[in-house]
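To: structure desk
From: M.T.
Subject: fold request, one chain
Message: Could you run this one when you get a chance? Sequence is below, nothing fancy, just the single chain.
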Amino acid sequence: MEDEITGHIHTSVDIMSTPNIEELKARVAQLELNLREEKEARTLSELDKAQLRTETEELRSDLLSLDTYTLQLRQQRNGFQTELASQIESATASAQRSDTLVKALRDGNSSLESELSRLKEENTKLQQELIVKEPLFEMGKKVRIRYLAQAREMVLFVKPRKGDTIQIERQELDKVGIENGNLSAHGGNGKADAALFQGNFLSETERYAYWVVFQALYKTPPQDYGTRSPKYLEIMDHEATIRTLKVLNDTLNRPLEARVQALIEIDILKEKYAKMDDATKFDADREVDRRLTLVRTCTRKIVEYDRQKDGRGCKEDKGPGELSRVCLAKRSDS
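Reply: Done. Structure tokens follow.
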């Protein structure tokens, strides 16, 4: 390019054929300055291009790194999505298992509650049955103890000897057992008699026949027995005992004073009970205790007389005896 400019200068000089050297030098200097500036500009342009190439490479490297990072993020996202889906599936399956387990537990609990309810009902029935049977058991036990006590002397040939403490204690034991057995076998027992009806131990014919008897003895139907106070029921038992022994053993020489006194005391107690509005007060009344104790004593005396088959009673009971005197004294006091 510099050769072209030089050639151009010579041509211009030849054409113009002017002798102004200074002007030509100035123009040459200007051209050279322009040339240098253009070279500098070209050099800067090349530098800019090189820098641009470098930046472009760096950008490409950055883009490549960005693509790699983006790919890694996508892979991580896909991994997270897969893991999340797995966790959701696992949680769903666990929830289903939990629901199944809860349902199974509820079904099991419901079954246990049903079984518990059934057992409670069965236990209640058994307890009620035991309550009904207990009076019969107690009465039967006393009767059989009486039999064993009476059989002791006949089977073992044992008689109490003077000063023999053990034999005396056995004799007293036998005496108590025989007395309790006599009362159970020959006396009224509303609780046991009611149990025959309440526990369905009787046939239809027996129920029909003995219902009226029960009503006449205890002044209440079997299903309603037990609604009155315990002491009043005991009074009714003693009255039933005295009334039935008179019917069954009318020819025996029973203590008439004891019978009369017992019935008088029973009538007084029945009247007192009818006037009271609280059965608890009746059972706690001292006068009731005193009169009922006398009724018990008289009833035992009557039963002991009536059980003798020869009509004479025990040897120690011949004549009025101590008990008759006690009964007469009590009647006088009242």
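Reply (cont.): The chain is about 85% helix and 0% strand. Let me know if you need anything else for the meeting.
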